[in-house]
Amino acid sequence: MNCTCSKCGANFTSKLAHAFYSLFFICCINTYSQNCNNKLSIEVVDLHDGTALSDATVVIKELDIGGKTDKDGLLVFENLCSRSFSLIVSHDECETLNIPINVRKNSFKKVFLEHHLHELQEIIVTSTDRSNSRSLFENKISKEVLKDYNSRTLGEVLQTVTGVSSLNTGSYLSKPVINGLHSSRVVLINNDVRLEDQEWGIEHAPSVDINSIDKISVIKGASALQYAGDAVGGVIIMETSREKLIDDLYGGVTTNLQSNGRGGTVSTNFTKTNSNGWYYKFQGTFKKMGDFETADYMMTNTGFSEKNFSLKTGLNRIDHGFDIYYSFFSNKLGVLRSSHAHTSVDIINAINNNIPLYIDDFSYTIDVPRQKINHQLIKIKAFKNYNFGKINFKYDYQSNDRKEYDIRRGDNINKPALDLNLQTHSIALDLESKFDSSSNFKAGVSGRYQKNFPDPATGVKRIIPDYKKYDFSFYSVYDNTFNEDWLVEAGVRYDFSHINAYKYYRTSLWELRNYDELFPEFLVEDQGLNTLTNPKFDFHNLSSNLGVRYTISEGQNIYLNYSISSRKPNPAELFSEGLHHSSARIEIGDLGFTSEVGNNVSLTYNLSNEKSALTVNSFINYVNDFIYIIPVRTTTTIAGVFPVWEYMQADANLYGFDVKYDKQYFDNFFIGHQFSLVKGNERSNNKPLINMPPANLKNSISYNFTDFNNLNVSLESEYVFEQNEYPDTNFEIYIPTSETYTMLETSTPPKAFHLLNLSSSIKFGSNNGGEYKINVRVENLFNNLYKDYLNRLRYFTHEMGRNIMLSVNYRY
Amino acid sequence: MKIFKYALLAIPFLYFSCSDDDDSVPEPINEEEVITTMIVTLTPHAPVGFDTVTLTTRDLDGDGPNEPVLEVSGPISSLTSYDGSVQWLNEMEDEPEDITLEVIEEADEHQVFFSASSGLPLAFSDLDTDNNGEPLGVNFIMFPTIEGASASGSITVTLVHEPLKPNGGDLDLALSEEGSIDIQTSFDVVVE
Fold it and tell me: Which end of chain A is more exposed for a tag (fewer CB within 10 A), N or C?
């Protein structure tokens, strides 16, 4: 029936917002509506490949009723009156959609849910079973990751994504490298919070427990402007799953034992949700490992222990809600005893010896050198829906405490050689809105205060100085679907940063680098040996992004994206000065650095249908004023000769591509292939960049015995090529005791290697409705002895040998 | 929901806890472990006619860009042997600290190695010892291998932390496990 507001007697003269309008609309329908027998059928499908999405939540906002789609993505509402409604469609792995719909007779609505435009890959660490949805192959990777990696680090988990590798220090300390870029160029978002954990250091692994995460998305390139403008490499988003709006209690326990390191992990979590929207969840993890071993020998002092937990509670209603999240992460990890080198002679001895100089029997003891990290995060977030959109408010506080212990003498034996405390407060306000049904608009402002405190009680010169940093930023992103085929996304972001640091420079260095003439305003006091300075910097950075998605046909898309990202130099790049004891090298930053600006163009083709999935991603990243550290010369101190690593700034080009192809044969036989290649060089002289990941090729076959408790057996092969493009920074060093010259071969990459991994899993239900999953995985099946170019300790040791892992996962 | 109240109450404290020392200038660090100076004193056994020789290396800016300054007080005689002693100092501190005492205290974790370049007619013996009777080398004797010979070359003095002991005076063996080099300096000397 027709119902206009004039019938209700309301006379709108002012331009009230659309929602108010419809409110009156509703009242009038309720009054006059006769037909309340309409049926509304909804089908929810994945926009990328058209597959049905089960378990999507569909809520009719006005009536506060809702339900979940079945395995065919269908949900039917009955007895609806003729009127217009707002549908809120959400799914664990998709953006929530708000869809207005007019119900006049029995209606059918197909809803397309989509991932973020550039979410090329995602890993579902724990997810609801979605075996009937989406491409089978992504699904399979998700499950593998879920089972296999719960005892691992974030860096290792992310390696399963094509184009992502990891930069390691030994066997446990690893950080993600996206298309050749890492550290400050990869921004990590944990539960909506930008992780501030001194990410600049290569030997600083992200302070995140993967057991506290339900979903990881990797956004390559810098198109995630709502999170950061300085992610020249990419953004990694870690989330917990959305809480359901029903009375439920669910959770799980995972235990994992492994032969290499002779330890394991226990992790537990539970969530209590209520239909009134209140919920709380708890998650805790304990890990303990002893010394890891290569194929031939023990890697002495490589054990670690880790204790983490997180709590979350909140209210989740359709139009408003809030949550409070607290997470505690702490670990203590040993660094290979033999990696402690004092001088170049020690490094040469280590390299020439091929295996570590010091090998002891297996032990759980974590001796020096070791790291002790403690990271705490508190987040308070609230949202409310208004007629003009959704407003999010967020405050978070992070404290990152890092202590590094080294081999010392005398009274200092138990003192850390490095003791940094980094505290960060941030506050953000975001608006999510729609101009019409085909466009989304998002904007926000945020502020951040950060303070770094290096404790002087260490008795060792500060590597990173005391500083305070104030950030302010705002952004706006907009996307519009022009028709079924074209989607355009554009965004812009401005970041302002003020850094106020206090630093003691060696007067000799201050003068050698002409800082006394270049930055006289920073000088506070010349104290003879040291000069106290107060460097202050302001950075204004603009980042932007323009992306297009064209749907060629159902399940076939092309993405083209251009993004400009600007990253201010991090404290290590600006202020480093002096001997870094843990790596026996002198590192020198530069106060004159400007912001690094990446111009990234990426082109992605994605094809997925029922039985196969293909993704080809290529990129070119023109980075102006790229900052990198490289050995430039050697210097002599009283202790001997040290290589000097200087941070340099030069224009650089990075380019490469990744291919991923998965295919299903018959009903339950799967084959997967991945290849990625990245090259980087300085623009002016074509000199290769240091630490670029070598090309790698991964292949896997797997078979599912569906009749036999979903028994899955899979075999993976990983071939990593030798990196043949690297800057030659080997130095000749004079060894006085033998009166000879020897090459310090720090830049020569190790040989190619090939690994095979075998895994098998089985799944069955328990009597009380829970589900068990048992997984056995053997990594490095043939116990190969190999070295990895992206491991900073490769001069001293090989990589891990065979590792047999057994994990049992129980979910209720 | 008490927990929220507590959580909200905590916020001001968090701010408070990190803003207590705003705008204070960080204190200078006492770089305790640094060795800036090594002095090798060679006292001739022959009572008259020979001078004491000192070999000094001094690197006052530590890991700063200035290279160590080496000083050899004079020629070494091949007509006498010498009592040698090594001293290490940290001259970065206002009151220079004598690190030698620490080395002696932890004698079993240290060892000094001496070597003369080929062609230099000098040898080293009678190193003092740690508690286990293994050589330490803070005190030693240097003697000419060919009496009256003259040559020029270098003497290398190496202080090793946590050497493998016993090592038979083999520096490479001493470094073969946990040992690492604290100090290594070659002095150009003239023997006459």
Answer: N
Residue A316 lies in a domain: yes
pLDDT of amino acid A131? 23
**Does some domain include residue B3?**
no
Distance CA A248, CA B121 (A): 87
- What's the structural domain count of chain A? 2
Please report the residues numbered 505 through 544 in chain A whose beta carbons come closer than 8 angstroms to any beta carbon of chain B: 506-509, 512, 524, 527, 529-530, 532
Domain boundary (A75, A94, A113) is at: A113
The pLDDT, as a whole number, for residue B99 is 92
A380-397 residue pLDDT tens? 999 998 888 899 999 999
**In terms of pLDDT, which residue wins out, A688 or A116?**
A688
Q: Which of A426, A637, A642, A738 to mutate to test the interface with B (most CBs of B within 10 A)?
A: A637
Determine contact, residues A52/A26, Cβ cutoff 8 Å: no
B contacts of A466 (beta carbons < 8 Å): 26
Quote the CA–CA distance of A277 and A357 in Å, as a whole number: 59
* H helix runs in A433-543, sequence order: 507-512, 515-518
Answer for the pair A268, A250: CB distance below 8 angstroms, yes or no.
Answer: no
Of A490, A601, A479, A609, nearest to A557 by C-alpha is A609
Give me A718's structure tokens.
Answer: 């990983």
Q: Examine the fold and report which residue of A89, A113, A137 is the final residue of a domain before the chain moves on.
A: A113
CATH of the domain at A65: 2.60.40.10
**Would you state the structure tokens that stand for residue A690, as one six-digit string?**
């240091």
d(CA B66, CA A506): 10
* ipTM attached to this prediction: 0.85
Counting residues of chain A whose pLDDT is more than 70, the rounded percentage is: 89
Q: What is the pLDDT of residue A118?
A: 28
- Which structural domain range is residue A40 located in? 35-113
CATH number at residue B155: 2.60.40
* Alpha-carbon distance values, A297 to A211, A359, B179 (Å): 30, 7, 19
Domain that holds residue B101: 31-191
Cβ-proximal residues to B178 (8 Å cutoff; 6+ apart), any chain: A337, A338, A357, A358, B162, B164
Residues 667-726 of A with CB under 8 A from B: none
Please name the residues between 16 and 35 in chain B that touch chain A, using a CB distance below 8 Å. Answer: 18, 25-33, 35
The answer to whether A635 contacts B65, with C-beta atoms less than 8 Å apart, is: yes
Give the tens place of pLDDT for each residue, A723-756: 999 999 888 888 888 888 988 888 899 999 999 9
- Interface residue B182 vs chain A (CB under 8 A): yes
pLDDT at residue number A15: 35
Q: Are A541 and A230 in contact (CB under 8 A)?
A: yes
Q: Answer whether residue B20 shows pLDDT above 70.
A: no
Q: Whose CA is closest to A218, among A203, A201, A240, A233?
A: A233
pLDDT tens per residue, range A188-223: 998 889 999 888 888 888 988 888 887 787 877 655
Show residues of chain B in contact with A512, CB under 8 Å: 65
Whether residue A465 is predicted with pLDDT greater than 90 in this model: the reply is yes
- Is A366 within a domain? yes
pLDDT attached to residue A497:
96
- Cβ atoms < 10 Å from Cβ of A446: 18
CB contact under 8 A, B14 and A736: no
Q: How confident is the model at residue A776 (pLDDT cuts 50, 70, 90)?
A: very high
Distance from CA of B185 to the nearest CA of A (A): 7
How distant is the Cα of A646 from the closest Cα of chain B, in angstroms?
A: 12
Domain count, chain B: 1
Question: What CATH code is carried by the domain that includes residue A747?
Answer: 2.40.170.20
* Position B13 in a domain: no
Cβ atoms of B143 and B191 within 8 Å: the answer is: no
In a domain, A190, yes or no: no
CB atoms B35 and A502 under 8 Å:
no
* Residue B144 domain flag: yes
Q: For chain B, say whether A466 makes contact (Cβ under 8 Å).
A: yes
